[in-house]
Amino acid sequence: MRLVGESCALLAAMVWALALVLFRASGQSVPPLSLNLFKNAIGLLLLASTILVLREGFWLPGGATWSDVGTLALSGIIGISIADTLFFYGLNRIGVGIISVVDCSYTPFVIFFSTMLLGERLEPYHYAGVLLILVGVLMASGHAPPANITRPQLLVGVLAASASMCAMAYAIVIAKPVLERTPLLWATFVRMIAGSAVLALFGALHPDRRRIVAVFRPSQVWKVAIPGAALGTYVSLLLWVAGFKYASASVAAVLNQTSVIFALLLATLMLREPLTRRKIAAVTLAFAGVALVTLFPYLSG
């Protein structure tokens, strides 16, 4: 099953990179909270339909406990309602190319929380890899900001995206023990419905509720928002969770991280974002750090 998990993790990176470009196009006219609500609504609809077709059921599966439901729900609230909203905010501010570099901070966060919560040990090469990633992220934050964005706004975008990676890593690490013993679709559905419920509450309490729900009215933005939601919240999410379920967390993390390469290329080809030397150097350093952190044990052993 390890090969299945690693294949899912790599496919998740490819699909997520394409979804990221579509989300960036959607985010130019849709606020972060609205886009997060919309993509979760599409994801829930597709997940529920899949569960019904496969007749897996929405009830508590054998071997699962209500404590497991609580853990998955907490993971969904942190990883979907909070992390994804921060991510879309950062994406709107700094663009696909720069956020792809910041995205590399996800792996050291996974390793840190795996060490703290799952008892994994940190070795010297972990620290060296994290240092490379941090240098890459710092290089990205010093990059010339996109049009109509000031340097302070660029920094805020980088910080928001980094906080998103931290929250996302924590959410998946606390869920991993439950994911290993529960059905994939059921666990993914519980995470998403919990995260979506909190987002819906935020939307209902938001002072500009009409603007928040405006995305649910048919419009031109649906041409990119619906494919982005289907790929990013259904296909990529299932592959991402499957990678963590069937492969080791560290290997799944590095394979997920290859999305930075795919996203950088797609952003250049589809969004016409400039592919500068600084951006290439930042991605190279960050990705080298990810590779060192996760592949060193296999190469040295």
On the 0 to 100 scale, the average pLDDT is: 82
What fraction of the residues are assigned to beta strands by DSSP?
A: under 5%
Helical segment count: 12
Order of helices and strands: HHHHHHHHHHHH
Low-confidence stretches: none
Structural class: mainly alpha
Summarize the structure.
Helix content is 81%, strand content 0%. It has helices at 2-27, 32-54, 66-102, 106-118, 124-141, 151-179, 184-205, 209-213, 222-246, 249-257, 259-270, 277-300. The mean pLDDT is 82.
Can you give a write-up of this model?
The protein is mostly helical. The protein contains twelve helices and no strands. The longest helix is centred in the N-terminal third of the chain and has 37 residues. It starts with a helix and ends with a helix. The model has no long low-confidence stretch (mean pLDDT 82).
Descriptive key words:
301 residues; mainly alpha
Write the layout of secondary structure elements.
Elements (H helix, E strand, L loop, with lengths): L1 H26 L4 H23 L11 H37 L3 H13 L5 H18 L9 H29 L4 H22 L3 H5 L8 H25 L2 H9 L1 H12 L6 H24 L1
Helix pairs in contact: 1-3, 1-9, 1-10, 1-11, 2-3, 2-7, 2-9, 3-5, 3-6, 3-7, 3-11, 3-12, 4-6, 4-10, 5-12, 9-10, 10-12
